């Protein structure tokens, strides 16, 4: 079931939030307030970070908050302990399939949509193995970094389940339909260096201990040098762009025209000419183009039920 709509309170410090099965840290460590780079850690190491409804609630709230918080520029997602995520906690399960299918919303999908809709890019540091929703939840991220010898896979068919977390949309677009069909149909698990993943992982590192530091290095570079507004709009153009070159040209032209009127464009040019680091300030939540989103959004809210009184 989808949770009821809640108001989002932006905290002074994310480290003070009391989230279930998730921990948020500032980077660099020691800051008493939110930093441009924040680290979100799946925090059930005793259960190999197996995914739970409470973890989904925590992640969904976190990404919704980052979306609204102009202080946050990049999110790093990782796991505590030796595994990134062992998939859904099968001891909890998913229900028994009773009730109306139209009322069901998979919890992994809620998380991936929150990540996808967040203007701030996510870098995933898969420091250990990940299967099932542990893989599908990472698909909307801008960058995924993994460990060469850890095992990764989309094991749904081996559990009698179909894919979720919007994977039927994201995975073929990331690695191609042929590779996605193979991974999903077999449900097999492979090391991070396997050819079957194609370009799913931006970097594959030989040591597990290298994964999070490298993710933080990339995240800090983006936070320091890339416009959050330009990054958000560019990713949206690629994910939800038109279906023809001509339509892409027209849309890109409109968005490009909008960007030339923003302070980030002026700052980007001036910092380059003055040979200094840029100080981008445009908040995508406030400065997105008037025609954003330029696609038709699908309503995912639950279908309301008619009361008995209304039928009389």
UniProtKB/TrEMBL annotation:
Which CDD domains does the record match to this protein? crotonase-like (cd06558)
The record, for InterPro entries, names: ClpP/crotonase-like_dom_sf, ECH/Chromodomain_protein, Enoyl-CoA_hydra/iso, Enoyl-CoA_hydra_C
Q: Which domain of life is it from?
A: Eukaryota
SUPFAM superfamilies, sorted? ClpP/crotonase
Please provide an example of a Pfam family that matches this protein in its UniProt record. Answer: ECH_1
Q: Which PANTHER family match?
A: ENOYL-COA HYDRATASE_ISOMERASE FAMILY PROTEIN (AFU_ORTHOLOGUE AFUA_1G01890), PTHR43684
Q: Which family does it belong to?
A: Belongs to the enoyl-CoA hydratase/isomerase family.
Q: What is this protein called?
A: Enoyl-CoA hydratase AKT3-1
């Amino acid at each position: 079931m989808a949770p009821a709509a809640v108001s989002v309170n932006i905290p002074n410090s994310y480290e003070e939030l009391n989230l279930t099965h998730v921990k948020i840290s500032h980077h660099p460590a020691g800051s008493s307030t939110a930093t441009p780079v924040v680290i979100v850690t799946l925090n059930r190491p005793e259960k190999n970070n197996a995914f739970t409804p409470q973890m989904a609630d925590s992640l969904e709230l976190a990404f919704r908050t980052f979306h609204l918080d102009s202080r946050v520029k990049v999110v790093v997602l990782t796991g505590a302990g030796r595994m990134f995520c062992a998939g859904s906690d099968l001891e909890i399960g998913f229900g028994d399939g009773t009730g109306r299918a139209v009322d069901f919303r998979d919890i992994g999908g809620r998380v991936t949509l929150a990540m996808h809709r967040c203007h701030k890019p996510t870098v995933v540091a898969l420091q250990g193995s990940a299967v099932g929703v542990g893989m599908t939840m990472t698909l909307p991220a801008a960058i995924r970094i993994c460990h060469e010898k850890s095992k990764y896979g989309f094991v749904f068919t081996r559990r009698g389940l179909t894919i979720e977390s919007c994977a039927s949309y994201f995975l073929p677009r990331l690695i191609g339909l042929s590779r996605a069909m193979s991974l999903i149909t077999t449900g097999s698990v492979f090391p991070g260096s396997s050819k079957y993943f194609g370009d799913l992982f931006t970097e594959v590192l030989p040591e597990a201990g290298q994964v999070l530091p490298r993710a933080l290095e990339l995240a800090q570079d983006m936070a320091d040098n890339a416009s959050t507004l330009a990054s958000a709009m560019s990713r949206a153009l690629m994910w939800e762009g038109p279906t023809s070159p001509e339509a892409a040209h027209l849309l890109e032209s409109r968005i490009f025209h909008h960007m030339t009127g923003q302070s980030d464009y002026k700052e980007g040019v001036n910092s380059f000419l003055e040979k200094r680091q840029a100080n981008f300030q445009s908040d995508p939540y406030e400065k997105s183009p008037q025609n954003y989103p330029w696609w038709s959004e699908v309503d995912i809210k639950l279908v309301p039920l008619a009361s008995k009184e209304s039928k009389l």
